Amino acid sequence: MTLSEQNDNNSGNAGFSRRAFVKQASMTAGLTFPTIVPASVIGANPPSDRIQLAAFGFGIRGRQVHGSFAKFEDARYVAICDAYTSRRERAKKAWDTIYGGDYVKMYSNPWEVLQRSDIDAVVVTTPDHWHVPLAMAASRAKKDMYVEKPLSVAMAWSFRLREELQRSGRIFQYGTQQRSSARFRTACELVRNGYIGTLQRVEVWCDDISSQFDNFTAKRWGSVRPIPPPADLDVDLWYGPAPLKPYTADRCTEFATYHCPDYTLGFIAGWGAHPLDIMMWGLDVDNTSPVYYEGGGTVPKFGLYQTVDTWDITCYYANGIPVRFLSERGCRDVIMKYRTRYSGHGTTFFGTDGWISVDRKGMEASKESLLTAKLGPNDKPLYESAHHQRNFLDCVRSRKPTICPLEPAIRAETISHMTNIMIRTGRPVQWDPVKEQIVNDPEASKFLDRPMRKKWAV
How far apart are CA 123 and CA 114, in angstroms? Predict the structure, then answer.
């Protein structure tokens, strides 16, 4: 592919609006941003062959993901957009130091970033409610995208993103990094090639909000007392497509990103995305979803963080295979009946000839031979990626699908959303994975969409 020209000195357009972006997204091909790049920073990857990146969000998770991208010589960040002035400045200072010059432009308006024709791809590590709106806008602006999990606060938003990507043909990588880990690939290969016999059921579990209670200003579920926002925060931008609400000490924080229903489904999606994704990979169900959900859970009745905070549900695929999805408070008694150690999140596959359980600490199995098993010549290996961010950059160049494309992201997200809906309505949910609709329940179906605030709507 032909990458965009190198840019480091874009002056920007103050006040550039979402409406102006939509109007101009198809008109930016003629824009150029010339610069002189010192030979010392070109190395083996000249500017014409370097993937130019824009970063959206520079919080804790953002710094981790962007740090991985910044170490690759064939890619360079040229733009940072964040609602916090201090975070924008921190990102620019860090990357300019790495690159050895004044290369990174700071922005407080995402549409202004996407107007730049020299940017090849965007990396979205914002609060959850910004993930899909920015991805849709990036698709319209002909940018490839790496989007952190969880995907969306509304299934209808994700369906619209799918339509956008089908039209634009852009490359999408979902930030569920575990498919780029050898142990998860090995576990799923063994399951899919019959090493535990005929698959019977799966157990999936993950952390819940209880692991973070001590981090909130108001313990347990966050403060709702209005206070003035910090001087370096653009509150309007942070809220973005979400509704305007009074600022509190626990609102525009990483924990609100995880637990406030204005911006997220909670850890049921934020952490759940990881083990659910591996469950799907092992079952070879990236293009479908479970058809029935039953079980229960709890939702806090006060405080800022009123996402589902405990859950124990079972969902069933059309072929009858059940998947039990549990939160931290409740999973220990279940998984420690067969495991030798506890891990905050993981996936266990049960077959007629044994079981395999995998998490980030390692793999356990019903028999030692499974832990050292190697695929035979007639077995089918899975897509291999040694590094999640590297895989994205390679696919930007090759135009081949990433290891975590959009479809499995939507299908895994469906499980989190149906679990949330089932618990909030207090009754089982039946899902049509072909039409992607809740069956015969108009009240439950209302949870599939939510409005975007007009100023930031896409």
Answer: 12
Q: How far is CA 110 from CA 20, 53, 234, 299, in A?
A: 12, 13, 13, 33
Helix residue ranges, H only, 215-351? 235-239, 254-259, 267-270, 273-283, 328-335
The DSSP symbol for 72 reads -
Residue 172 CA to residue 54 CA, distance in Å, equals 15
**362-370 CB contacts, 8 Å cutoff, 24+ apart:** 362/183, 363/183, 363/186, 363/187, 364/339, 364/340, 366/196, 366/338, 370/190, 370/195, 370/196
pLDDT in tens, 407-448: 999 999 999 999 999 999 999 999 999 999 999 999 999 999
Please state whether beta strands 310-316 and 199-206 pair in parallel, antiparallel, or not at all (unpaired).
Answer: unpaired
Are 145 and 288 contained in the same domain? Answer: no
| Structural domain ending residue among the three candidates 178, 198, 223 | 178
In this structure, the answer to whether residues 429 and 412 fall within a common structural domain is yes
The reported pLDDT for the residue numbered 26 is 41
CATH code, 27: 3.40.50.720
| Residue of higher predicted confidence among 445 and 35 | 445
For residues 190 and 138, membership in a common domain is answered with no
pTM of the predicted protein model: 0.90
What the block records as the tokens of 124 is 């979205």
